[in-house]
Amino acid sequence: MKLKICILWVVAFGISIGYNKLQSRDTPNRYAFFTPAEIWKDDLGNHINAHGGGILYHEGKYYWFGEHKSERSNAALVGVTCYSSSDLYTWENEGIALPVSDDPESPIVKGSTIERPKVIYNAKTGKFVMYFHLELQGKGYEAAHVAVAVGDRITGPYKLVKNGRVNAGKWPMNMTEEQRDSPVKSTDFEKWWTPQWMAAIKDGLFVRRDFEGGQMSRDMTLFVDDDNKAYHIYSSEDNLTLHIAELKDDYLDYTGRYIRVEPGGHNEAPAIFKNEGRYFMITSGCTGWDPNAARLLTAGHIMGPWTLHPNPCRGDDAELTFHSQSTFILPVQGKRNAFIFMADRWRPQNPIDGRYVWLPVLFENGLPLLTWFDKWDLSIFEQINADFPSPGR
Predict the structure, then answer these.
(1) Would you identify the CATH topology of the domain 2-383?
(2) The pLDDT of residue 191
């Protein structure tokens, strides 16, 4: 009953602000609210082209980095875009932060695959560091590389400094000696997806397979903790297991400390945040461009253990995450317990028309709750008090 009342109040609140908040008439592209899955124009009058993106807040402004999509291709034909905003509603096009290369020998040559770029700032070095999932041109998804680029200015240009697999020759911290030493190999299985094969996956079959060359890295995000330690969270082991890897102090490489999360769980699209001393991660299943039900994981420490919870979405189309897929969770500056769930509604037949689904993160019994709003604004975080008893584990 408590949940039903909460959701009814939230829906009513969303409808009321839709009527009470009017878009500014100063320019046709100034906004005063969010309208999930609708066309969202930048200051130049174009639909924002920053798919699979993430946001960095720096010196009073938000900077949104994402994939530049074309009308007929998801390949990287332009590069990584950057937009800036002081209020999160209205965005200024800052141009191409990381351009693709015309050099056919470059890993980021035009036509390669650049996905889910994220940028963090290193206060010690004064550098802006970008990570993204990279697939080499003409190689499908077999490379499974992470790429690292660095810039002196937040808007770029960024320069590619390295790419490759992750933590070659390093074992996960939560993989036992018995699992590391197991003689079971991929070639022992004629078929995938059998109970025996899945048990072997959970036991580290693909970790051992990729040990020497490094672990696969596909859908990914970055997270900087309160102590300025940074982490790379990525889908690995052929998208069957998430990894969380600690970065060195300059954020350019790995310390070798990493863990496996939900082995065999088939998670991708990780989005992570921290609140009230706990870590929350929302992911999706792996169904290509088609949406599926979100997953929620929580932990008392970034390096685990992580606990799986039911789908945090409620209401119509909750089983499809409102026809979208997670990409980032944004802390709203100056507001306590205020986070925005950022997701993409993919349009593979016309990628440039992909839409953005931004929703407020609400809480019930200390766990994130996502529900649909046709329109909403940041005042929702002042109207609804977060409910924060410690979540069960």
Answers:
(1) Tachylectin-2; Chain A (2.115.10)
(2) 94
